[in-house]
Amino acid sequence: MLTIYGCYRSRASRPLWLLGELGLPFAHVPVIQAYRLPDPDAADAPINTRSPAFLAVNPMGQIPAMTDGDLVLTESLAICLHIARMAGGPLAPADNRESALMENWALFAATSVEPLALSILMPKSPDEATAAEAALYRPFARIEAHLAGRDWLLDRFTVADLMLAECLRYAAGAKALMAAHPAISAWLARCQARPAFQAMWAARLAEPA
Q1: By the 8 A CB rule, do 75 and 114 touch?
Q2: Each residue of 5-34: pLDDT tens digit?
Q3: Is the peptide bond before 15 cis (omega within 30 degrees of 0)?
Q4: Domains in the chain and their CATH numbers?
Q5: What are the distances in angstroms from CA 58 to CA 13, 31, 41, 43, 182?
Q6: Which of 26, 46, 75, 104 is 20 to 30 Å from 82 by CA-CA measure?
Q7: What are the CA-CA distances from residue 104 to residues 97, 112, 168, 171, 172 (Å)?
Q8: Is the pTM higher than 0.90?
Q9: Cβ distance 99 to 157 under 8 Å?
Q10: Core vs surface per residue 4-33: b (16+ CB within 10 A) or e
């Protein structure tokens, strides 16, 4: 059975949201980040990113990770793409062209959006947050233009929307940036209104901060 390793308060939220959308059976091992524990090596510590059992799955000690038979994936967006392709249906690519587009949006999210968005969510200084917000105007302009006249990145909600929405979410607190991009704001609201996102978010909020 497909197994997801990672707590909801991590990038594991991405495949966990997707699996909720698809209604697929899976096992969940709620591995927590070691830095959140007073003593991650204690005998009674919950399974965490320094636990030998988890390091046997991902020696990098990072979550999420996924096993599917003998396949092991340790990057959240690669996990999402694999799950979508495996499941098929409307969230998955219908052909090679759509597969290429979804891969393009995943890489765009990971390289052009997420690093800057994280600097807004968890800045090391006010100047870092200000600089990150300014730098996001260029990739946001690209997304805003693409969404003009569209509800979704493709002709329907797909794993591409889910992946980009989860990376972009980190920047949602930048009110001026979001207000300057109404198509993105409306699209993100549509993504997060979906029942599977709401269920994932409720589970995330139920975890200790």
Answers
A1: no
A2: 999 999 999 999 999 999 999 999 999 999
A3: no
A4: 3-90 (3.40.30.10), 96-196 (1.20.1050.10)
A5: 18, 11, 17, 20, 39
A6: 46
A7: 11, 11, 15, 20, 22
A8: yes
A9: no
A10: bbbbbbbbbbbbbbbbbbbeeeeebbbbbb
Q: In terms of Cα–Cα distance, which of 180, 113, 190 is closest to 151?
A: 190
**Size of the chain, expressed as the number of residues it contains:** 209
**Which amino acid does the sequence have at 48?**
N
Contact 12, 3 (CB under 8 A): no
Query: Which spans in 47-157 are helix H?
Result: 52-55, 76-87, 96-108, 114-121, 126-147
Q: Are strands 71-73 and 65-68 parallel, antiparallel or unpaired?
A: antiparallel
Full strand arrangement of the beta sheet holding 71-73: 27-29, 3-5, 65-68, 71-73
**Total Cβ atoms within 10 A of residue 157:** 19
Return phi, psi of residue 130, to 5°: -65, -45
Report how far residue 209's alpha carbon sits from residue 59's, in angstroms, rounded to the nearest whole number.
25
Answer for the pair 60, 33: CB distance below 8 angstroms, yes or no.
no
- Write out pLDDT tens, residues 93-111: 999 999 999 999 999 999 9
Q: Rounded to an integer, what distance in angstroms lies between the CA atom of residue 15 and that of residue 84?
A: 9
Q: Would the CA dihedral through 6, 12, 85, 199 be positive or negative?
A: positive
Q: How far apart are CA 14 and CA 76, in angstroms?
A: 7
